[in-house]
# Entry
Amino acid sequence: MKFERRQLSWYVSAVLYRYSYISLAHQLDEDLFAYLGDYLNGILAADCGCGPGQVTEKLLAHGVGRVYAIDHNAAMLRQLEVRVQQAVQEGRVLNVQSRFYPALFSELLTQTDFFSGFGLILFKRSLYMPPEEALPLLRAAVASLIPGGKLVVIHGERSLLQYAFLPDMKVASYTLYHLINRFFSRVGHALGLGEYSLYTRQALIDLLTQAAEGKPVEIIPSQQHAYNLVAITA
Ligand SMILES: C[S@@+](CC[C@H](N)C(=O)[O-])C[C@H]1O[C@@H](n2cnc3c(N)ncnc32)[C@H](O)[C@@H]1O
# Structure
């Protein structure tokens, strides 16, 4: 796959990422799995922007039948392969080095006879594209879900106050990390070295409502408020 300049920040991130999976990241996973309940058993999932695979590993532990772990970054995928080595060997995890594009989901479905559609398509902290690019992608993702299947987007809140601080501007354990993270992500975006489109909670709901085309859209309850968790049910 051709190296793209706008991927550069993800290569830097790949070196540090294993150290930055802080309690908040685990909390988001707990909120997600509490929402999904035992629904994951045996389904086909797509972990879009899987990074080093922490969530892919947890999806397997929750009984998902097969996961397409999709990421354009080779360094991230190398870490995923080590993390879930056995599942890769068994064909339960298939890593896909690609940028997201609308036809990707239907193309992946043609590679499997066993599944008629995705039970879960997840974008956790990976939908950093502007709405005009995100909308056709999300519409295509929804079209490739099985009836009752879920598309979930977990994305950092655009408001810096909400992203980095607790209510009343109280400092959180992650405040410094989030301030530094946002500063470098913004600089990387401005220099064309990374993508960093952000959404307020309402903007994310509006985007998913447009993508859902009448299907139900809901906010996933979460213990924290630096991120927004929104789901579409097909
Ligand atoms: C912040 S990491 C999140 C990793 C994981 N989902 C998590 O929450 O821990 C974002 C990942 O998405 C990938 N990514 C971002 N934009 C992408 C795109 N347009 N196509 C494919 N992968 C992308 C990056 O390479 C990176 O590994």
Observations:
- The chain has one domain: 5-233.
- The domain at 5-233 is CATH 3.40.50.150 (Rossmann fold).
- The beta strands are 44-48, 66-71, 93-97, 118-124, 145-156, 165-166, 170-171, 217-219, 227-233.
- The pocket of S-adenosylmethionine is lined by residues 10, 25, 49-51, 54-55, 71-73, 76, 99-100, 124-126, 128-129, 195 (CB under 6 Å).
